[in-house]
Amino acid sequence: MTDGNEMAFARPAYQYASGSYDQPSDGMTKREYFAALAMQGLCSNPHYTNHVGWYEDLKMDAVQQADNLIAELNRGVK
């Protein structure tokens, strides 16, 4: 399905009719995007954020969830 390091929101350079110009952007990787979504969900759970040091666990848990999702998506690809 995906390599976690593939770009999720790459954008090419673009010149508008007015002459202004947008620089190209690689965006973020799919792994970064999935981790951000997992982090959002974890932060919305009061049971998760209600213990000492939860913010230290957050970064590791979010990345682990992203890696698990990528592995699961890749498992279905033949």
Keywords:
about 80 residues, mainly alpha, two-stranded antiparallel ribbon, about 45% helix, flat
Topology, element by element:
Blueprint: E1 14-15, E2 21-22, H1 30-43, H2 54-75
Antiparallel strand pairs: 1-2
Mind describing the biggest β-sheet? 2 strands, antiparallel
- The ordered string of helix (H) and strand (E) elements is EEHH
> What level of helicity do the residues show?
40-55%
Shape: flat
Which class do the helix and strand fractions yield? Answer: mainly alpha
Query: Percent of residues in beta strands?
Result: 5-15%
Strand order of the largest sheet: 1-2
C-alpha end-to-end distance: 9 Å
The radius of gyration computed from the alpha-carbon positions, rounded to a whole number of angstroms, is 17 Å
**For the residues shown, what is the average pLDDT?**
86
Q: Enumerate how many helices there are, as a single number.
A: 2
Q: Give the number of DSSP strands.
A: 2
Query: Residue ranges: pLDDT <50 for 5 or more in a row?
Result: none
Notes on the protein architecture:
The chain is mainly alpha-helical and 78 residues long. It is built from two helices and two strands; from the N terminus they run ββαα. The chain has helices at 30-43, 54-75, and strands spanning 14-15, 21-22. A two-stranded antiparallel sheet has the order 1-2. β1 (14-15) and β2 form a beta hairpin. α1 (30-43) crosses α2. The longest helix has 22 residues, at 54-75. The radius of gyration is 17 Å and the shape is flat. The model has no long low-confidence stretch (mean pLDDT 86).
